[in-house]
Amino acid sequence: MKTVSVRERNQLNFSGGPGALPESVLRQLQEAIHAVPEVGLSILGISHRSDWFAAVVAELQSNIRGLLGLPPSYHVLFLQGGATQQFSMVPMALLAGRSRPADYLQTGYWSGKALPEARREGPVRVVWSGQACGFGRLPRDEELDFASDAAYLHYVSNETVEGLQFHRVIGRDEVPRVCDMSSDFLSAPGEFGRFSMIYAHAQKNIGPSGVTVVVLKDGLLDGAPDAMPGFLDYRRQIEAGSIFNTPPVFAIYAVLLVTRWLRDDVGGLAAMGGINAAKARLLYRALDRADGFYRPRAAVPDRSTMNVAFTLASPELEKRFLAEAEDAGFSGLAGHRSVGGIRASIYNGLQLGAVEKLVGFMDDYRRRHR
Ligand SMILES: *Cc1c(COP(=O)(O)O)cnc(C)c1O
Asked: Would you indicate the residue range of the signal peptide (predicted)?
C-alpha cells in the first residue's frame, strides 16, 4: 500500500459489488455533494419533489430506453430494496393466484436465491439446475425444455459469484422473459426488446447501492392481483413515476451521470461491450497460459465478461495471492464468501489499464510461486 496513491488504489478496485465507478462520475458526485451547480444546493438536501429531480428522473428514463434501444411502451422504474426485493415482487405480480407454474433456471448463487421467494407465491418449475455440476457451466439449448404455457421464465443473465454469463437469449418468445441483469446491465449491446422485464440494481455496474432499475413492457401486469401492498405493486410505482415515497435521490443522480458517461464519453453500449470484451480477453488469456497454476471456474463458452472467477492449487496459495495483491494496491479480489477462491470483477467503471496491471501481477506471482 505504501507505494500506491489513493487515486491509483481507487482505480484498482476489482470488487464484486459495489463496484468501481468512472473517475469523472466520482468527481461530479463530489461536486454535487457540496452543491449541484444548476440548483446551488447539496444533492443530499434537494427535494425529491423539485423540478430539478423530476428532470433527473425523466432524463434517466430516456437515457436507459435509449441505451437499451427500447420503445416508450416500456416503463422504466427506479425502486428500492435491491435485486433481492425483485425476487419477491416479480412472483407477487406475475405468479400469485395463477395455476400455471413459472419456469426458473438455477444456474448459480443468485438465481438460487430467487427460487424460495418465488415458491412462496406460487408453483415453480426448475427447468435446469447446475447444482450437480457445481455451477461450473450453463445449460446448452438441447438441455432446456421450456413450457409453452409458463406464467413467465426467470433467469439471471450473469451469475456474479460463479462468473457464468449467457451469451444468448433463451426461452420461448410466447412466454414473458424476466431477467435479473444486475451484474451485466448496460455492459454490452443485446436484444433487450425480447424481454418483458429486466431488473438490475445499480451497485455492480452503473452506480452506488440504493436503487434498482426495472424495465417492463406495458401490459405485462394485466393479470396481477388487485390487492397488493402499494410499495410492492409495480402499477402503483408506475403511476407515481417512481416517486411513490422518498426515493434515493443521490443514487438515482449517480446512475444518471453513469448513463451520460456511457453515451457521451464511452460512445454507447457497442463501444462499452468492446472495451469489456477486451478486458475479459486479457484476463482469461492470463489464466489459460498459466499451465494449470490458475484454474478458471467457468466452462469456456459460458465465461463471464464481468466476473472472472478462478482458484489456485491450495488455500495457502490463494491466501498469499490475495495478501500480495492487496499490498500491490489491488482490492476486492477475494471470491464470494459462498465459494472462496479469487474473483476479478471488471465492471464498466474499471479501466483496461487496471486489468493490464492485474495481469502483470498475476504473471509475476505465478513465476515466483510455481
Ligand atoms: C448482487 C446480486 C444480487 C443481490 O442484490 P441486492 O441488491 O444486494 O439485493 C442479485 N442478483 C444478482 C445477479 C447479483 O449479482
From this structure: none
Say if ligand 1 is within 6 A of residue 17 CB: yes
Check pLDDT > 60 for residue 2. no
Residue-wise pLDDT tens digits, 347-356: 999 999 999 9
Pocket lining: 184 vs ligand 1, CB cutoff 6 Å: no
Q: Are 205 and 247 in the same domain?
A: yes
Q: Are residues 214 and 361 in the same domain?
A: no
Mean pLDDT of the chain: 97
Task: Report how far residue 273's alpha carbon sits from residue 67's, in angstroms, rounded to the nearest whole number.
Answer: 12
Residues 216 and 273 grouped into a single domain: no
- Number of folded domains that form the chain: 2
**Alpha-carbon torsion (174, 175, 178, 181), positive or negative:** negative
Domain limits for position 120: 26-265
Q: Is 212 labelled a binding residue?
A: no
CATH of the domain at 189: 3.40.640.10
How far apart are the CA of 182 and the centre of ligand 1, in A? 6
Residue with more model confidence, 4 or 64: 64
For 223-258, what is each residue's pLDDT tens digit? 999 999 999 999 999 999 999 999 999 999 999 999
Q: Is 201's C-beta closer than 6 angstroms to any atom of ligand 1?
A: yes
3 is in an annotated binding site: no
